[in-house]
Design goal:
The chain is mainly α. The protein contains ten helices and two strands; from the N terminus they run H-H-H-H-H-E-E-H-H-H-H-H.
Length: 260
């Protein structure tokens, strides 16, 4: 029975992951249309980021949690068994920052918002996976769950709401693209740090050291966001972190039919 439940949980996780990826692909196309740029620019950056996130997150998880897994080569690529989430989101952000160079500032902005969207969608899909519950808590913050006799904090729902609100909030601050990317990563890290205190057992998906690792990551990225916002050229100027790509960059990213 336990094995069957574990198999169902893994399948629910896989479906949730697939839905998140599909949502990100849709978002990349909408973002490209809104910026009047070739959607391949954002889709390529998205897939590069996903590959980097899975590779880095899986590697760190193996080193820290299952160092003897190298004896079973086929299990090395079974990401269902574990991915280090902090490493994965950091790798995704770094890949987006690297891809945003040479005037492709819209990629940095897209990457930051994609991070928040993906994390919020995954958290909201706890309703599908039936793992929204956290620690026991008082009304009105906690709600009844069928599998528990006492009300529990719907920690997944709270996490999704906070992350969903972070995107519009950061956009309203009118940060320059590289600063917005680091601010989005900081908002994600701070949210995860706070949510860990409400999860069952305190830490559910990560090692206990990462509770404070999230806080360190949030602090570092806040500093990066502040420095990037000060060093970037003013809005509309051409440059490696400008919000308006140079004419040569636009010419290389606008679809051919539009150029004609």
């Amino acid at each position: 029975m336990t094995q069957l439940l574990d198999e169902l949980r893994l399948r629910a996780d896989a479906v949730s992951g697939a839905l998140v990826v599909l949502g990100l692909v849709w978002f990349s196309r909408r973002w490209a249309k809104g910026n009047e740029l070739n959607r391949g620019l954002f889709e390529d950056s998205l897939w590069y980021g996903i590959i980097a996130a899975l590779a880095a997150g899986r590697t760190v998880w193996i080193v820290t949690e299952a160092p003897n897994l190298y004896r079973y080569p086929l299990d090395l690529i079974r990401i269902q068994s574990g991915v280090d989430f902090p490493t994965a989101v950091t790798a995704f952000a770094l890949m987006g920052w690297w891809r945003s160079r040479k005037g492709r500032s819209a990629v940095a902005e897209f990457t930051g918002l994609a991070l928040l969207l993906a994390a919020a969608a995954w958290a909201a899909l706890c309703l599908f996976r039936q793992d929204c519950y956290g620690r026991a808590g008082p009304y009105p913050f906690a709600v009844p769950f069928a599998q528990f006799s006492e009300p529990r904090l719907p920690i997944g729902v709270y996490e999704a709401m906070l992350l969903a609100a972070a995107g519009p909030l950061l956009l309203s601050l009118r940060l320059k693209p590289p600063a917005l990317l680091w601010a989005a990563l900081s908002a994600l890290a701070l949210t995860e740090f706070l949510m860990e205190f409400g999860r069952v057992g305190g830490i559910s998906r990560f090692t206990s050291s990462w509770r404070w690792g999230w806080l360190v990551l949030a602090g570092v990225t806040v500093i990066l966001s502040f420095v990037a916002n000060r060093r970037s050229p003013p809005m509309g100027e051409s440059g490696p972190f400008s919000t308006t790509p140079s004419s040569s960059t636009l010419a290389s990213t606008i679809p051919r039919e539009k150029q004609q």
